[in-house]
Design brief:
The protein is α/β, with parallel strands linked by helices. The protein has 9 helices and 8 strands. An 8-stranded mixed β-sheet has the order 3-2-1-4-5-6-7-8, with helices on both faces.
Length: 245
């Protein structure tokens, strides 16, 4: 796969990164990513994945934009309220980068349809706001050996870890019991924007092969105190999801 003159110019600044270069950009062009949930995390994550030049992307969300999404869901403008999130995101991201292919999927992920919805991708980015769906995606990614970049936010706090099946803990290893669901999560828009930027960075690192992803580690961000902490998280060899990998 080659890069056009326009692509060489578009991605010039990131190709200057040590270890990236033209070959790294070709890897990105050949890759396919899924962003599941086009909300506070999924909007900025998909913007930066589009900007970095991921060749193909699947955007998954069942919902429509609402007025109270506008404080954080950066692909929603006032005129988009009431429209399907995945469709709006596809239109805007294609306007940002016409070099990539984007598929919008308006669907709720379940155990029965997860394969058909996400399909065969190189990385999955977690843009969910509920644990039930996260665990379905986690199991799918573990079963199909797909990296899964988890993030979660609340108020001015957030967390992120990268799950590489068989190389580190999966989400069920880290959370053996389901955390409580929150109907309306309090959130400052800058919080998911920050975590989503890190998710896009992790995805680019995995695909290009540069740097060290957050495998076996979870980064916690405390925006109230501007304190950041990384803690080790370990595999559970008896995990019902990934224990046999």
């Amino acid at each position: 796969m080659s890069l056009s003159s326009a692509e060489l110019e578009r991605y010039e600044r990131q190709m200057l990164i040590s270890g990236w270069g033209v070959e790294g950009q070709k890897k990105l062009k050949s890759a396919k990513a899924a962003v599941v949930g086009i909300g506070g995390l999924g909007c900025p994550a998909s913007i930066y994945l589009t900007a970095v030049g991921i060749g193909r992307m699947v955007l998954v969300d069942k919902g429509k934009f609402k007025l109270d999404n506008l404080n954080r869901q950066t692909l929603c403008w006032q005129k988009d309220v009431g429209k399907f999130k995945a469709d709006v995101a596809k239109e805007k991201l294609e306007a940002l980068n016409s070099e990539i292919e984007i598929e919008a999927v308006v669907a709720e992920i379940t155990k029965d349809n997860v394969y058909n919805v996400i399909g065969d991708v190189d990385v999955v980015v977690d843009g969910q706001d509920n644990w039930k769906t996260r665990f379905i995606i986690n199991e799918y990614c573990a079963t199909h050996n797909i990296p899964f970049i988890h993030a979660g936010v609340s108020a001015l706090h957030g967390q992120i870890t990268t799950i590489m099946p068989g190389k580190g803990p999966c989400l069920r290893c880290i959370f053996p019991k389901d955390p409580p669901e929150v109907e309306k999560i309090p959130v400052l828009g800058a919080t998911p924007a920050f975590l989503a930027s890190l998710q896009a960075m992790e995805a680019a690192k995995i695909i290009t092969g540069i740097g060290k992803p957050l495998v076996g580690r979870m980064l916690f961000a405390n925006g109230e105190e501007m304190v950041f902490e990384t803690v080790e998280v370990k595999r559970n060899m008896d995990c019902p999801v990934c224990g046999n990998l």
